[in-house]
Amino acid sequence: MNNATAEDYRRLVAEGVARVARTVAGTTRPFTGVTPDELAPGIDAIDLDRPLGDPAAALDELERVYLRDAVYFHHPRYLAHLNCPVVLPALLGEAVLSAVNSSLDTWDQSAGGTLMERRLIDWTAARIGLGRAADGIFTSGGTQSNLQALLLAREESFRVLRKNSPTLPSVSEMLPKLRVLTSEAAHFSVLKGAKLLGLEPDAVVSVPCDGDRRMRTDALARELRRCREEGLTVMAVSATAGTTDFGSIDPLPEIAELCEEAGTWFHVDAAYGCGLLASTTRRGLLDGIERADSVTVDYHKSFFQPVSSSAVIVRDGATLRHATYHADYLNPARSVERRIPNQVDKSLQTTRRFDALKLWLTLRIMGADAVGALFDRVVDLAADAWRLLEDDPRFTVVTKPTLSTLVFRYVPEEPVGETAVDLANLHAREALAASGEAVVAGTVVDGRHHLKFTLLNPETTPDDIRAVLDLIAAHAEDHLASARLTGSPAA
User: Residue 488: is its pLDDT beyond 80?
Assistant: First the structure.
């Protein structure tokens, strides 16, 4: 891509975009139902050392090995994971950023991109309510954002422990005593982050949830007190604003109060619930988030951005120094004195895409209110779906949704064992995916297999939900009927 090939670029990308547009326009179901065994031979047979030499031939091949069988999140009956259909301005941003190929690690590689990313971090921090000292950095996703937040919390704990100790304890002395408290419904990335940071296997303490799958503050207070009495240091309490399975939001004001009293870092994983920051009607569900020391936001979930687009935002930008390393060839220490804005000084990554451009163009073309309205629409849809499930004797639903996820379970009219019900639900999900007519997720609640709707498509309707529920029930009933005929224990 240069001044001599610009016209070739325009023509090539136009051909690719036209192919994708035709495929999407002709998509009638979210998935073809293809299996790994069916798809793998065709891909394995491609000789990557023998180029086709022709863009049209390569696009034909791409359609055969990828586009035809891709899972399409834009389809209204894709109801599985936290994957969203993406808004068009963000796709425009994706095209621009990949062509220019800025790297956001240093000013001399990105210039305006650096300042635009910083402006979006400030915008997000203001929406959260963190104050003028706040700062942050774009990341690859919620897992990295949570990891960086825990890193900062760990380093701040070390700083405080050394400050309050006459002996300047070593890392090896302090590390085994660190604990992270989070709810039993929290994302697994908290456990993964603790392991990567060298914490003990039992360092992450699971705090029980209430019936709405929110962290119980009485149990949190009890764990904070226990850790203090046992000489342990709670380096962070990680609350969740939008759990993956239930969309539940922990009681943030009460947790903030307990963290303040205990003098511990308060992190909020709002990877899912961050869409409420743009809502004109539901922002109050995040009350208390403004008291957090760090917040994870995933724009590629509830801001309808393409992957990847995430950020970690901190109340005190000075704490980002714990991720700072200087290299003479890249970001020498003298650049700080000259006030050169090198984003690598704040990031766990070095080379980093200008993913912020997608959100920038979304806000400049659509505006935040329009994004919030899309998220409000899927939350409203979840409420409609909950009422459908509540009124349908074929299903039980675990809890009333706060955001846009629903966990439920098919239950047959004739009583059968719980194991048989488990197998019927597992079969229904697999059979539905194999048919390609819809895609739903699954999870385990209290030891039993359940199904899950994750609603992030504003174009999905209650009629779509009804149709998918009928399909699930039919597959489950077929499985139970077959089990009865064969005398299987699954019946």
Answer: no
CB 69 within 8 A of CB 34: yes
pLDDT tens track for 27-74: 999 999 999 999 999 999 999 999 999 999 999 999 999 999 999 999
Residues 6+ apart with CB under 8 A from 72: 24, 27, 30, 31, 78
Helices and strands in the chain: count of H runs, count of E runs: 17, 12
464-469, long-range: CB < 8 A, 24+ apart: 464/76, 464/77, 465/79, 465/381, 465/384, 465/385, 465/388, 466/388, 467/77, 467/438, 468/77, 468/79, 468/432, 468/437, 468/438, 468/440, 469/388, 469/389, 469/392, 469/394, 469/395
CA 491/CA 480 separation, integer angstroms: 6
- Examine residue 308 and say whether the peptide bond preceding it is cis (omega within 30 degrees of 0): yes
98: three-class secondary structure by DSSP: helix
Q: Which tokens sit at 255?
A: 């947790």
Reported as a single tens digit per residue, the pLDDT across 337-353 is 899 999 999 999 999 99
What are φ and ψ of residue 267, in 5° steps? -110, 140
Cβ atoms 281, 287 nearer than 8 A: no
Residue 101 has pLDDT above 60, yes or no: yes
Closest CA to 177 of 167, 188, 169: 169
SS3 241: strand
Structure tokens, 216: 């119980």
Angle, helix 356-365 to helix 112-128, in steps of 10 degrees? 70
Q: How many residues does the chain have?
A: 491
For the stretch 151-162, pLDDT in tens is 999 999 999 999
Whole-model pTM over 0.85? yes
Give the helix, strand, coil percentages of the chain, each rounded to 5.
Answer: 50, 15, 35
- The β-bridge relationship of strands 448-454 and 405-410 is antiparallel
